[in-house]
Hints:
Layout lengths: L1 H15 L2 E4 L4 H14 L3 E7 L5 H14 L2 E6 L15 H19 L4 E3 L13 H8 L4 H4 L4 H10 L25 H16 L5 E6 L2 E6 L1 H7 L2 H14 L3 E4 L16
Parallel strand pairs: 1-2, 1-4, 2-3, 6-7
Antiparallel strand pairs: 5-6
Amino acid sequence: MLEQKYNELKRILGEMGSVMVAFSGGVDSTLLLKVAFDELREQAAAITIQAPFHSRSELTGAYQMAESIGAKQFVYDARELDLKAIENNPPNRCYLCKRAIFNICLSIASDNGFSCLVDGSNSDDLLDHRPGRQALKELGVRSPLLEAGLTKSEVRVLSRRLGLETWDKPALACLLTRFPHGAKITTDKLSMVESCEDFLRKLGFGQLRVRVHEELARIELEDSEIDRFLDSDLRKSVCDFFHAAGFKRVALDLDGYRCGSMNADSVG
């Protein structure tokens, strides 16, 4: 079954003729770029968005992965893009953001002779709250992994088979997902979250999120890593760092890491 899906993915990409891959350097888009480049060579390229709500470590990883694959990479600086519509983190933030950014990506793809813009959505994404997918549908952005029926776990298996170091990389999400709907977003707040998450990763924690509730940081970790976090010395070093970053209170969420846990939250 997996081999059939893999062959279908190659067929889909081959029929497209030329593709520009919306590339974050995460598990899904890395596999997509790798297969696209293997099938289409110079007719496949990556486009990576630089935005204040994308962590610098993720951007660095995206540059390195595109280079290792050998695909040409376009970079669009979205830091000057007028995104005032999302500065208060509305519930449809993802739709508004993707609509604005992917419109520009479509223009870049067209201007450089690529017939299709594709993203790394997989079939598991249909099971989650993904308002941004509506924007992709409206703009005609295709999702070859999803079209081939590949799940996240299958993407990881194929990634490992193809020698991609991202095969076991934790799931990525833009930093805006760390804030409740209605929260005022500032570059300082984004930097606080980014630095604290980077600190936790340097301590060896994998899949994690630092969710922001005004002056409180709520840490989500995988269940298997919660016990290690409770070591008194480690916990103190985390609290010291978070306080220095600007958080007045630090909490560990005993429910553990949950994708999209802020969707039901609101300010107040």
